[in-house]
Amino acid sequence: MCGHCFIVPRDVLERLSRNDSLSATVRKGMARTAKLDIELRRLRAQNHRLTRLGMRLAPVPAPAAAPPVPQVLVADCQHGTTLPGVPVPAPGKSSDATARTVFDETTALARFYAKAFGRNSIDGAGMTLASSIHYGVDYNNAFWNGVQMTYGDGDGRIFLDFSRGNDVIGHEITHGVTQHTIQLGYTNEAGGLNESLSDVFGSMFRQWQAGQDVTGADWLIGKDIMGPEATARGFTCLRDMADPAAGHCLAPQITHISQFKKGMDPHHSSGVPNLAFTTAAKALGGKSWERLGQVWYRAMTGYRPSPNMKMAAFAERTRKAGATLYPGDAAVAGALDQGWRKVGL
Amino acid sequence: MTDDGEGASGGRIDVERIGGLAGFGGPGARIRSRGTLPLSALSRADRATLDRLLGQAGPAPPMPDEFLYRITRQVGARVLSVEVAESEVPAVLRACVRDELL
Ligand SMILES: [Zn+2]
What we know:
Helix content of chain A: 40-55%
Largest sheet of chain B: 5 strands, antiparallel
Strand content of chain B: 35-45%
Distance between the termini of chain B: 41 Å
Largest sheet of chain A: 5 strands, mixed
Shape of chain B: globular
Strand order of the largest sheet of chain B: 4-3-1-2-5
CATH class of the largest domain in chain A: Alpha Beta
Largest interface: A-B, 58 and 39 residues
Number of strands of chain B: 5
Strand content of chain A: 5-15%
Number of strands of chain A: 7
Number of domains of chain A: 2
Order of helices and strands of chain B: EEHEEHE
Distance between the termini of chain A: 53 Å
Number of helices of chain A: 11
CATH architecture of the largest domain in chain A: Roll
Bound molecules: zinc ion
CATH topology of the largest domain in chain A: Elastase, domain 1
Number of domains of chain B: 1
Oligomer: heterodimer
Strand order of the largest sheet of chain A: 2-1-3-5-4
């Protein structure tokens, strides 16, 4: 019975079994790999199902005024690609500057979510924040894999160590918050919203740390990880939330919903909600996380999970959240309207 | 010896790494990552993995900010292409790309 629990697709088995150039050992190995890949896919799907189930069975209690900061762990991949890597003991006091930075900034981000939004970690219930550093060789990326954050060192020419960006750390951890709240998918309009939430909360974290209001904020994503070759060419960031199509961005974005096309990379379509947020924040003034951030947080966390949400529906949700949080506040409603109108929503 | 009944010696594989936090290879992006390998550079095991990837109906979407790899295998006039998440791509193909500014 159990031998049939994990089913390798018939076409894969047939192709492998017909491939005479493979030895019996290799064919067996390939069958094992195919099974592992299938299990990996199932694990990912299961992870999402578990998240949803967990939320249904154990609703997150109303947050206290200032929840405690969760445990923060750092592991070292030592330039390999096996996660999580070797645990770094006492990462806040490590001789490795990257370990110290990731520990300090992750801890600060947990404080930001606790103090500004009353949230206790990624899942709202004190989940340990685990990060891996020194992933791969000259690796130009950072990502969230469903359970933890991972940071590459950059190649030193186009990019520096990805953990140097507090907005990058905020971006990755917010992917976790999204997974445990609104549960947006990662394709089409939902994917663009997913990416945008990470940019919005990453940027707000950067502003919160610097004590900046909306006029002092740079609204740039990835400013601190740009390497010498990129800066020499005039690229100052990955994305500019206030001017998504600008030439100083390494990856310029769309700025209006009419430019959206199905299948677009979420890092490209996120320009629409990014510009809406930034426009609204500037219209409202003050510190972004104090009012507009609260509206965005409620839109992200205060309703049912919406894996396939479209941008227009999210815009509507922020209007609803704004009216609930700040009833009769014409400045909030006006700013939201200004922001979404700018991008055609 | 043949590879799926095709002559493997003249085949090549083009790889483009796309997406990631920086949005590699997107429309208008000023950063991209590409590489090419002769099919003969792949081990038998990696060729079989590539066969399987190219035969997949709907590859799993990437996790947030995980790279996607657009892999194109050309043998003679026969061209097959697929986009797969980095975690599924053989190391030899992951290693053949080089990141560059445009
Ligand atoms: Zn992201």
